[in-house]
């Protein structure tokens, strides 16, 4: 553990970030979350009905809460790296690349929207 380089640590963080995002938000894993969610009708002050998906149980909260899932993903990634490095390292490598790409894409998207907003202000 004392030989952990900063690069490896950053890779572990990015891999944990991407795995958490995959579980909580991505469409491809919706089939995992779906059995633990239910629809709830919410009526606002104006009488409009909105249907929201809410967790049925603690497992639903775990799969729907970024903070909750993040803890467990960090445990899985960390233990995978420490206990089974031959199997864990390739997975961590791929997830860390995907995590860094996701973060970069977010910044590019924000930058693109900001440029569009600023150019609209000039008109």
UniProtKB/TrEMBL annotation:
Entry keyword set: Membrane, Transmembrane, Transmembrane helix
Matches recorded under Pfam families: DUF1360
Transmembrane segments: 6-25, 61-84, 90-115
Name of the protein in its database record: DUF1360 domain-containing protein
Organism, as annotated: Bacillus glycinifermentans
């Amino acid at each position: 553990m004392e030989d952990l380089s900063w690069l490896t640590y950053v890779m572990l963080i990015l891999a944990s970030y991407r795995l958490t995002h995959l579980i909580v938000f991505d469409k491809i894993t919706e089939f995992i979350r779906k059995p633990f969610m239910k629809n709830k009708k919410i009526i606002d002050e104006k009488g409009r009905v909105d249907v929201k998906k809410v967790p049925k149980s603690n497992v639903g909260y775990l799969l729907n809460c970024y903070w909750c899932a993040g803890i467990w993903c960090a445990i899985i990634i960390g233990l995978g790296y420490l206990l089974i490095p031959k199997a864990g390292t390739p997975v961590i490598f791929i997830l860390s690349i995907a995590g860094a790409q996701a973060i970069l894409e977010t910044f590019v998207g924000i930058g693109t929207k900001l440029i569009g907003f600023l150019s609209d202000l000039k008109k």
